[in-house]
Amino acid sequence: MLAFLTMKTRAMHLLDRSGVSYTVREFQEEELGAEEVAEKLGIPLDQVCKTLVVRGDRTGVVLACLPGTTTLSLKSLARASNNKQVALVETDDILRLTGYIRGGVSPLGGKKAYPVYLDARALAQPTISISAGMRGMQIVLAPQDLIRVTLGTVAPLGDPTGSGGPPQRKRHDG
Q: If you average pLDDT over residues 87-104, what whole number do you get?
């Protein structure tokens, strides 16, 4: 059993206050990435959503949540967020901006409520897994509940992994 089972994160408190039903899944993390989460929790990779911290030239910081089977298309996110250009923030800026460390970024309960964009592919799943706000801890909830609580926007944000899309600059997994 992992030590932080009884500890509630800011993300969980937000869901509790919103009356959202969710479950918490924990695992011993060794690497950062959706593939490890899917393997350790025994769920399909397309149900594990990674949260990427992105800065738009017009809107500032936004959060992009997309299935582990999907690579973020910066062009698609720019279009969805009404920006001309977007870029992943530097890894060193993630904690300062969100209050979360790389590998534990949640779209919920951050230092600031940034706009959230959820890839449309996530809606095909009955539940999705997102970071609970710390490495090795995931929240499983309905994608519609994530959209409702974050006032998020659903849009096509990427290309399935291996589809030959353009390479991404200095990636980070949330």
A: 95
